[in-house]
User: What shape does this take?
Amino acid sequence: MAADRTYLVLAAVASAIAVVAIGYLLWKTIEQTGAAWSTFGVLGFVFGTEWVPTPAVGDAAFGALPFIYGTLMTSAIALIIAVPVSIGIALATSVFLPRRLRGPVGGFVNLLEAVPSVLFGLWGLTVLVPFLRPALDWMARVLGGISILGWRPFEGPVTAGSFLIASLVLAVMVIPVVTAITREVLMSVPREQQEAAYALGATRWEMVKHSMLPWARSGIVGASALGLGRAVGETIAIAMLLGNSPAIFGSLLGPGATLAGVIALETNEADGLQLSSLTALAVVLFVIAFVINAGARLLVSRSEAGPRKGLVRRALGGVRGGRPAAPDAPGPATSDDDGDAQPPVRARTAPLRITGRGAISTSRRIRSGAAEALIWVSVAVGGIPLVLLMWEMLYRGLPALSWSFFTELPPLDPSSYGGGISNALVGTLILMGISLVIAAPLGVLTALFISDIAKPTGWQGRLARGLGFFVDVLLGIPSIVVGLVVYLGIVVVVQKFSALAGGIALAIIMFPIVVRTADEMLRLVPSGQKEAAQALGAPRWRVTWAIVLPAAGPGILTGILFGLARVSGETAPLLFTSLGNQFFSTSITEPIAAIPQLIFQNTVQVQTPASLQLAWGAALVLVLIILALNLIAWLISRRARPTEAR
Amino acid sequence: MTDDSTATDAMRARDVAVGGDARVPDPGPDQGQPDMTAPVPAAAPGAASAARGPAADGPMPMFTRDLSAYFGSHKAVEDITLDFPRNTVTALIGPSGCGKSTYIRCLNRMHEMVPRARCTGSVYLRDIDIYGRDADPVAVRRAVGMVFQRPNPFPTKSIADNILAGPRFTRTKMNKAERADLVERTLRGAGLWDEVKNRLDAQAGGLSGGQQQRLCIARALAEEPDVLLMDEPCSALDPQSTLRIEDLIRDIKGRVTIVIVTHNMQQAARVSDFTAFITIENEGEPGRLIETGPTKDVFGNPQHERTEAYVSGRFG
Assistant: This one.
């Protein structure tokens, strides 16, 4: 049928446009790296330890190792802090909290995933750094002498930006990610498994330890790996807090630099070999993030299928020996074996004790109690910074808000108070609009192609599978890399920063989010319904229009809103695409201001009391926008789920 | 089966115990039930078993009085008063949704694990109300074992570790030989030893459904429970495995009091000594106990029309 053909072609073409456009940009990016590889060689570049763009004498030198080190080090420290805390919070919100509180607290943690990274940077720089300074000075004094194979991790002097500070903030940012997935994995542990432990007389902690954790182990590893993927790609907060001075095995109390951070800070002024080297750094970052994300997804999807042996094989199952019998262990126990008629199943031999304190031994009480206490400690460790951040934002942001805050431009003199963020507010809305207009239709059509129209075999099936993989890859690209890709593919080519370039960068981030959620929602539409409509003689496009879209529509809309919320807080991809603008502009071909970018600028480049006040006010507005989008998305998804159509 | 004098004796004894000091683990033989409070040192599990007959006479090891169970405001079971005589098998039969599973889950305080679920009335284990203020649900569950509809071994633990899970929870001190002995003894008891003795270290998830269920029974028995609850233990199994489980029930009933929920009336007739029939009389009402007695009476000479209709297959 002609109409069906049109539908198929439309969906296929939309997907193709996305692939070709992004593919073109990626190709321009890869092309740019040529100079770096040919000058230093791949290994020479990756393992080069010098990064000297403008040397006093001699040639410039570019090597990736200090940034790889900085990226992995900050991520590793962040993960060491975040994973135990996240497991604790996930356990609290799935087992230990009163049932009524689990949902709201879990939802609060989920929501924190949406807090933009620039806000963490602002908070870290203005609140955490001064607050922790005395503690860090003390660490340098007391632990400064410690040396591990010549590496002195706590040597002074303490600098404002440092590995420890950046990693701490990074940990706070990663906790919501790891917690959300771990919680999901824990809640997927079947009831029967939990009941098995309880029915044997396990305390809550013993149930968790013997029944839930073994089942969820590989899922938790996967969640941690996804957190690592997020940490590795994190740009803005780290760029604000790490001090940006490349160093390998310097003090943790001193500065460093990460792959994402150096790209964010140097790209605008770079050209020639330096730009090529920065692009090569982006490729290195992409590869690291890709490997981590691919591994993580594999682990998470596996764990949903049930328990597996973890990565770390259990050393020994079965009847383990080891501990010798305690001295007061009964010698006469063997006398049981004397009687030939010894019954294989015995009646109770120990006294029955089910009441009072003696019912459960003291050591069990202590162990279970200590484990629960640790869980509550981790809730506090994870929750307090997040609550403080929210408090700080209200405390400092609310006084900045006024009518003129929304209608006036930022003051030209950074030291004068007053003014507003009208240009950034309008700019953010325009950028969101551009990315919505591009990403939503392409994303939905691509999802329709993948899971509604494409036949599983032939060119359609191959294209659908290829698209699925492509979307997964896009999901894992750090946003700073997207910014660089658009910079090289569009801004450099047309020689102009513009709102359109910024919007395209955001659209590239939003596109895979839309496809993934829409795809999931479409899959939830029961195939029986589609077949029923087709059996009645409806053409394929009509089935989609009358059956599939009404059922999956709210879910797809939710996905679009979540995507929009996510990109509205992005800073990194805007730094060298839409650039920013001191003045009011609504032209999509001119540079344009955006709230996250204004916060970044006022915190890092200007940093006066007046500019910080403006930044806190802007942060509050940004978070309110994101909250509103999330709230609408949540309301829609609550009202209608496709499964209701069953 | 409803031996009222025994029941009231037990209740009186319990009142004394609670009124005095329920935390004293050894109320002493002067309560009139020497066997149930025999002062065996906790540190010496198994030490005194040879001295004690496995099937000593005594009061009902478990009985319920006016037990009602709720899900939120919905009453699922109403006022069930039942005795489970020592070392016998009692079958609970009744149509789907009559609340027999809910009832059995009240007997080891598993019912309250369901959100908004609660129950009223009392359940006595020997002379102690397991819903008493001082009772600890964790300890109750150790004394009252449970086997579920779907086999639920810990799939990543080895077969041996599954057996040892209970003693590990209670941190019972055992040396290697004692552990090996417990594993072998319970697996033999569950008729599983010959099938798994060469792969005790293999993951339990690799066993067949019937083997998994027998492993679950063995795991529960390893805790030496007073009462073993079985909630439709064969409903997920093939006929062959079902017969093996029934053999197993007959094997162990001399040493443990068994309460079994079943949909299968032939099964109830084959394995149980006593039968209790629970049903919902009208839509929306809670499940109530209609009739109880020796199995041969309930099936051969039912006193109530409803019971007769159900056991003869005319209803339910």
